Recover the amino acids of this structure.
């Protein structure tokens, strides 16, 4: 990037210094302008998506994620986090469909969406088989997704004694 383009980008970001990071200057002026002037990102419910992590995505990914029909459903609005741009759209849709199948969709987390759909299905079936609740009480007297379903493979193994790779390898005939 030449100094002229960098200066133009800096002018666009005046009073938005929180968006400046190393990856910003790997983008074009047009891309930065798109992010800053995007009508959807300007809406109140999307405003928190404008963080420095947005520069790691491309324009198409942003447009696809912003236009996903799931955001029309109130149950999924809490998933509008900057890291949503790092998750494959098909995986998001598949994991939401999986959650709906097991009636846990109102409780899913961004980490739930990050998990491989096949592994997640195997894990859910394993928990059901072991009579482990998918929805548990939270500290405030409400309900939440069982943390097992949002845990990494390492945490599953170390904290819960669940070797998801072994479960998937055995093939649970799902």
């Amino acid at each position: 990037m030449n100094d002229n383009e960098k200066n133009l980008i800096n002018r666009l970001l005046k009073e938005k210094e929180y968006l400046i990071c190393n990856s910003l200057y790997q983008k074009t002026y047009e891309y930065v302008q798109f992010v800053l002037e995007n009508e959807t990102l300007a809406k109140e419910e999307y405003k928190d998506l404008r963080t420095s992590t947005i520069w790691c995505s491309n324009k198409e990914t942003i447009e696809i994620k912003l236009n996903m029909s799931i955001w029309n459903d109130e149950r999924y609005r809490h998933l509008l986090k900057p890291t949503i741009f790092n998750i494959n759209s098909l995986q998001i849709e598949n994991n939401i469909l999986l959650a709906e199948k097991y009636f846990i969709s109102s409780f899913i987390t961004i980490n739930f969406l990050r998990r491989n759909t096949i592994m997640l299905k195997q894990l859910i079936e394993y928990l059901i088989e072991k009579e482990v609740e998918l929805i548990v009480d939270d500290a405030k007297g409400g309900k939440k997704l069982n943390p097992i379903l949002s845990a990494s493979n390492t945490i599953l193994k170390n904290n819960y004694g669940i070797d998801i790779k072994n479960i998937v390898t055995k093939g649970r005939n799902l």
